[in-house]
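Intended use. Records like the one below are meant for learning the mapping from a protein sequence to its folded structure. Do not use them to infer anything beyond what is encoded.
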Amino acid sequence: MPRLDTLPDAIAAENLYHNLVIVYVEGDSDVQILSRLFPDFVGQQIEFKTPATGVAAEDAPGGGCEAVIKRVIWERPAVPVWGLVDRDIFRSRRWWSRCYATDNRTFKDHGAFGSEQSIPAWVEPLLLWEIENYLVHPEVLELLCRDMGKHAGSDPRDTDWVATQIIRLCRQLLPIAAGNSYLHDHGRPALPTHFALDCDAPSVEKKVRAYVAEAVAGVKVREPERDFDWHYRHVLELAGAEGESWRQALAAALRIVEGKMLIERIRKDFGVRECPRFLLARQIG
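Structure written out for the chain above:
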């Protein structure tokens, strides 16, 4: 950890001198995405930083949600800084009632889940699973694909059709979301990023079930009732009903699917040659 007796004064002086709203985020890629999403505000009214910004390497608190919280607590109340953390903090802490909260208003209420699931009021958890999920806009994706994808130069496809394809890819990731929660519940590593990349949803579920069964074999079960099916049921509830409009269905699914995995599937399915995260952010901004 950084030295608490020396850092706050220096950081406070820097932040107050620049007269910007400082928001700490989990990593460098988050800074780059948010800076592209809000180009008119960055440097003028707001600045995104990682928790390690301005700290000597040997003292850096690292990255991730817990580092954001530590850095914000560290500077408050001397400096009015803020933090943004991914929704996956609640998986990380095994706070399942908030992780799987289906009512958005309740989810955002810091006091709705009791003090044992609270985080500082100056740190805001994202409604969607992670920063990358805010880049998933069918209209923008289609524009990008016309420039970079296998259909470059062709007429734009119907937005409803594009959205349906994205939701199909989201559905493939729901068993993976449940699998990763189940694995984390038992202290096991998450599924690989490219897991079952070429499979349809039923095949993905089958592969996930086989993978997690092998991964937790011989591991002491924390809570027997919280098996894979328990997590999968909650994931499906959070992801919404099949019959909803595509806007409702996509908004619901993006609360639980892992954005980096989704964008990789979109990239492959739409024939985009390189990872489009930063290009999408710039286009949206």
